[in-house]
Amino acid sequence: MMKDSFRPACLVLLLLTTAGTAWTLEPVGPESEAVLQTLREQGGEPTAEALVVGLNRVTVGLYQAGDYAQVETPAQEALALAERDLGQDHP
Q1: Which residues touch 73 (CB under 8 Å, ≥6 apart)?
Q2: Which domain holds residue 70?
Q3: For labeling, which of 9, 20, 53, 70 is most exposed (least CB within 10 Å)?
C-alpha cells in the first residue's frame, strides 16, 4: 500500500504525462527555489516541467531514504506548480 505522503508525487507524475511544456517558470517555495538554482547551474534556463521533475526526484529520494518528515515539502511544491499552471480540474 502507498504511503499517504507519497501520493502527491505520484499525482505530479500523472500531471506531467498530460501536461505540455508551456508552463510559467517560477518557484513556489524554498525547495523549488533550490532545485531551480541547481538546474540553472547545470546550464541554461530550465522548463517548468524540468523543475517539477527535479522536485519529484527530491521527493522520491527522500522517500526512499526513509526521511518521511521531509517528503511533504517538495511534493507539495511540485503539486502547487502543477495546479497553478494546469488548474485543479485538469485530468
Answers
A1: 29, 30, 31
A2: 52-83
A3: 20
